Amino acid sequence: MAIRNKYAYCKQCGKPVKKAKKTKLESFHYQIIVIASIASLGIGLLVFIIYRLFIQKRKYCPICNNIVQFYKKPEDVPGPKVPVIHLLEKLDAKKEIKETKLEESRKFISCDNCKKDIDYDAKICPYCGWHHESTK
C-alpha cells in the first residue's frame, strides 16, 4: 500500500495548504466533453466523470493556483517565508550606521565661497568650483 503525502505547502504563498484543489475546467474542456459524449453515446461523459472525481489529484493552492509541494510528515513542511521588507530595512539601517561612522572619521572644512562642508583634502569645491588651498 502506498504512503500518501498528506501535508501540502505552497512555495508562492509561503503557507501550508490545508486542502488543495483541482484545476478549474475551461471552456474548451466543456467542448471536448460535449463532443466526446455525443460521439460515444454518453460513455465518454461517464469516463470523464470517473476521471475527474476519482483519478485527478488535488494539487493546486486555493489562494494562488500554483502547484503545491506534498510532504509525508508535518515536520518536513517548511516554515513561513521571511518577509523581504524587514531584511531590506535591516540592511538600510546597517548602511546608515556605516555611513555615519565614515562621516565622523573624515575631516571637513567650510568652503569660503558657498559655505558648504567639503573634504579637508579637496583643492576644488565640488559644489561651486572654488579653488582652495588646504592648510596641512
Order of helices and strands: EEHHEHEE
Strand content: 5-15%
The best one-word shape is elongated
Structure summary, number of beta strands = 5
Strand-pairing-aware structural class: alpha+beta
Low-confidence residue ranges: none
Mean pLDDT: 78
Proportion in helices: 25-40%
Number of helices: 3
Largest sheet: 3 strands, antiparallel
Please report the distance between the alpha carbons of the first and last residues.
86 Å
Report the radius of gyration as a whole number of Å. Answer: 33 Å
Strand order of the largest sheet: 2-1-3
Query: How many domains make up the 3D coordinates?
Result: 2
Short description:
With 136 residues, the chain is α+β, with helices and mostly antiparallel strands. It has 3 helices and 5 strands.
Describe the structure.
This protein has 136 residues and is an alpha+beta fold. It folds into two domains: 7-76, no CATH class; 103-136, no CATH class. 35% of the residues lie in helices and 12% in strands. It has three helices and five strands. The chain has helices at 27-39, 43-55, 84-105; strands at 7-10, 15-17, 69-71, 108-110, 117-119. The strands form two sheets. The protein has a three-stranded antiparallel beta sheet, with no helix packed on it. A two-stranded antiparallel sheet has the order 4-5. Helix 1 (27-39) crosses helix 2 (43-55). The mean pLDDT is 78.
